[in-house]
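Case 152 in the screening queue. Each case pairs one protein sequence with one candidate compound; here the compound is uridine-5'-diphosphate. For every case the pipeline is the same: read the inputs, emit a complex structure as tokens, and attach any notable structural observations.

Predict complex for case 152.
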Amino acid sequence: MSTTEQTFIAVKPDGVQRGLVGKIISRFEDRGFKLAAIKLITPGKAHLEKHYADLKDKPFFPGLVEYMNSGPICAMVWEGLDAVKTGRVLLGATNPLASAPGTIRGDFSLAVGRNVCHGSDSVESAKKEIALWFQEGEVVSWESAQAKWIYE
Ligand code: UDP
Ligand code: MG
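Case 152 output:
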């Protein structure tokens, strides 16, 4: 756990279509995380299959890839203390019906196949996902003026 831990967060096509990009960004900004990369992207089927490669044998995989390929995705890297685990807490449970109010999924979604956002599940997968979604140089290293007011 370090203040430079990074996680890959994406607003899925339903979140983009529903105008939730700003609200989801605000959840991460408000908590104290620092934006390190952001872009709107339609990466195509092969890229999305790679992103979800671990799930390729699941019955919902084809539908998941079709859903993710249905419109632009807002891909982001957020940085800060315990960013991966705490990012997942901000997202809520995979099934929105099990997500607590106050979480992104718990406030903005109902169906597991339309759960508006993605977040890396471990530091290792965050590294893999950031490398898959962003080129060298797209992830920006910068010093936030707020850092000394957020960290001891
Ligand atoms: N998903 C689905 N049906 C399921 C489980 C998952 O459609 O029964 C979708 C859902 O959009 C989820 C994504 O597949 O966010 C990836 O699944 P994972 O188990 O990695 O959940 P996450 O890490 O997104 O919470
Ligand atoms: Mg996952």
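Case 152 observations:
- The CA atoms of residues 36 and 141 lie 7 Å apart.
- Helices lie at 13-17, 21-31, 45-51, 61-68, 83-91, 104-108, 123-133, 147-150.
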